[in-house]
Amino acid sequence: MQWTDRIRKVKMFLLAAAFVIAGASLFVSHYLVRDLSKEEQNKMEVWAQALRALNTADENTDLSLVLEVIQGNNTIPVIVFDAGGHVIDFRNVKVYAANQEDSLAYVSKLGHEFYASGKYIKIGLGETDTARDYQLVCYDDSTLLKRLAFYPYIQLTVVLVFVLVAIFALLSSKRAEQNRVWVGLSKETAHQLGTPISSLMAWTEILKETYPDDMLIPEMETDVKRLQLIADRFSKIGSLPEPVDTSLNDVVDHVIDYMDKRTSKTISLIKRIPDSDIVVNICPQLFEWVIENLCKNAVDAMGGANGQITIEVSEARNMAIVEVSDTGKGIRKKDLKNVFRPGFTTKKRGWGLGLSLAKRIIEEYHKGNIYVKSSEVGKGTTFRIELRKSD
What we know:
Blueprint: H1 2-56, H2 64-71, E1 78-82, E2 87-91, H3 100-116, E3 120-124, E4 134-139, H4 143-210, H5 216-236, E5 244-247, H6 248-260, E6 267-272, E7 279-282, H7 284-302, E8 307-316, E9 319-326, H8 354-365, E10 369-376, E11 380-388
Parallel strand pairs: 6-8
Antiparallel strand pairs: 1-2, 1-4, 3-4, 5-7, 8-9, 9-11, 10-11
Helix pairs in contact: 1-2, 1-4, 4-5, 6-7, 7-8
């Protein structure tokens, strides 16, 4: 719980930090772009006045400063029109047309776009304001200014990606810690079971010799072997199991045989398996445990009432399918997304670990898939397992 609260606080802090950084970046960039835009506008006014001075100069005028101002503009796109709307000059405009005629048409169109956006300066060339006495200096933002306008959004994206990566890393760390706990708990359980199981096996042999005709002793021996199998299963958690080609028909037979002796007579166990074997590459001990766990959950879901559990094996193309269905109380829709989450349970007793461990065994150890195929409250639930068939 403490770890969960810490993760939640860290996520909230990261999100808050991301919003603060993004907001500050947008605020600063907005004012920076506005100030640079005003500065470029002032530069263009000076440039336009220099162009006017060049056009109205006589032979005695010193044009060195004027030419320096005009030649000094290497960043701001400029297109100059005469009073008739013809392009007479342009600077810092990239032309992609194949010939001069098309180039002028492209520049003229671009200049009219500058004019339509309100970025132009009208300069008079004579003492009277007639139709032939002015030029239009149309301009656009420099490449640097345009890049700065997009910079905040790029930065916002980077910050968002950073936050998502950080949250993913935290969740992965939490999941890794949970896995270490599961593995440690499983191996410790297997270790602790080892000594009493060995003792029980020895006592069973003694009882068999002392009471050779007692019918209960073989059943006791079967249960002790079952405990040994359970301990073996727990010892395999956390280590890579050694899969072997196994018949799903045999697996279902073993599960039915085991569950039938330990399930109330009010619950009928039904198997539906094909005539020919379906062979998959699995760890039989762990896979049988998964099916048994689904059956035990189904028994709990029926609460001692009359019911039916059906285990069906089928195949589709290269997939082997096992479905475990029951006629129990079903799962509410709002709980469907949580059924495989560690700690989730609807029972008064239990830790809510069975389905979580089953999912890990199927998906991580066997590279398969397990999910709730269907469930309806009051009618029952069907779990579906999909595995790749052996070649």
